[in-house]
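pls read this protein.

:::
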Amino acid sequence: MRSLLLPLACALLMGSCATFDSSAKVVLSSDPPGARVAIDDEDTGFVTPCILELDPEESAVLSFELPGHEPALRLLVPETSKRAVLWRQMYINSSTWHFPLWLNFRDFVVPVRVDKRLSPARIFVRLERTADQ
């Protein structure tokens, strides 16, 4: 009985901390670079180019502001995708044992992958000069 408990305990402890990661990364850039980024009219303290981690379940309005240029607005919306992961797909190559011990705990117990993210995940904004208007 003890010989069965050790492998089971090891498999349960190998669950990844990525199971509890609830943020979505968004890559922002602008031309010209250096535009201040605000989310829902609150300054983030970041300038482009940057990567922000946001809540994937809430929509957000991003604004890009640069002196001498017109401000630009972009909308981020939540997006969810679900897919089943078959046990036969959970191995690296044909010489690997088909039992997926390297998966995080959620995928180990329930082989359904749910990805939550914000769309679009990459935003490029070309800022227009105010003198050109």
User: Anything to note?
Assistant: Residues 15-19 have pLDDT under 50 and may be disordered.
